[in-house]
Amino acid sequence: MNKLKKSFFTRLTGLLLVAGFFYSCSTTQPSVDQLLNNKNYQQALTSINNQLAEDPAQPDLYIQKAKIHAILARDNDPEVRAEYYESAVESFNAAGDYQPTTRQQNQIDSLRQQYWKFEHNLGLQASENEELDEHFQRATIHFQNALILQSDAVSTYKSLAITQFKMGELDVAIATYRRALSASDNPPPQLYENLGYLYLEKGDPEQAAYYYELANKSLENDLNTAFGLINAYVSNGNHTEAVEILKPLVEENPDNAGLRNVYGTQLYEITEIVIGDLKAAYRAQDSALVSQLRFEAEGTGEQAEQQLIEAFRRDTANVNYLESLAVFYNNLSAQYLSLQKVVFSEDLPEIRSKAYTLIDFAIDYYEKLSDANPDNEQYQAKLSTLENLKAQNSASPNN
């Protein structure tokens, strides 16, 4: 009996020793922190995954996992960081699924911001470093990496789109801005303004105007947006809309010669449209409409003339403003000459006189242009044409 008890006790002791042996071994396994300190990242990931398989509701482990993926990203070239950052984001999102504490959530937000800022700033540095080979391409890679970490980072979208535009990738830059709009709950006005600019560059004034209008800025206080929208309207032939913006801007900025010059040219465009309607009214023998349209054409033409003169008066050294006046008088004289074929006979002398008065002004300003640019053959040719017209009028028996 005692022999049996002794045998059983011995076996029990043996089992306890074995259990103790295994317990002792388990405590000597390195912790995740130890593995990280030793840069054993893959082993650390394996350890974390094993622990999460047993109990997935551990936000801290997901945060550690995200950290490891971020470290691996930085240890690799920018071109191959995307997959590591994507894994980091997946880990952050998984941590968020298990009701993290305020401390844990703050840590998640802080780390994402830190990793995003790292890539975003590298993108800015690369885009400005002209000594770096293919610096724009390198910058776009960093910006795209940053957007993996913060998909709603408007500043990164803007920087990426600007870099793409500088690379000549206009459509790609537009697509980037449109992504920024989709990613932002409250897009800043500059996104719409920049899209408007890019669509103008693309030659799509209708879309440009659409986005400039969405910017919804006070045009009197933001001349960049105002000019962009005006350019969009002008390019799309929406001269009335352009004038509606230009009028208050000129009143607010009376000494801005550039504004006055554009305002004057747009008023001329409207004058030309009115004269086109006037021709149709003459052909239709509509006397009442003729009177109305003649008055409108005279009034709008005079406004255009006044604005162009005021622009040149404020900057007489600017040849562009001088040329605007020369072209204005030349084109408006041509419009009145074209009316001669359709006007009522009683209106012909006045219309003819108006046309040749405008020709005299055109000659005067083209002479000024020729004096300022004696080698410009186009000015000389235009001046010769106008002088021939004047001579023909002087020789005409109806004069």
From TrEMBL:
Q: Does the keyword Repeat apply?
A: yes
TPR repeat segments run 154-187, 189-222
UniProt keywords (A-Z) are: Repeat, Signal, TPR repeat
Q: Which Pfam families match?
A: TPR_19 (PF14559)
Q: Transmembrane stretches, by residue range?
A: none
Annotated PROSITE patterns? PROKAR_LIPOPROTEIN, TPR
The name this protein goes by in its record: Tetratricopeptide repeat-containing protein
What is the scientific name of the source organism? Answer: Gracilimonas mengyeensis
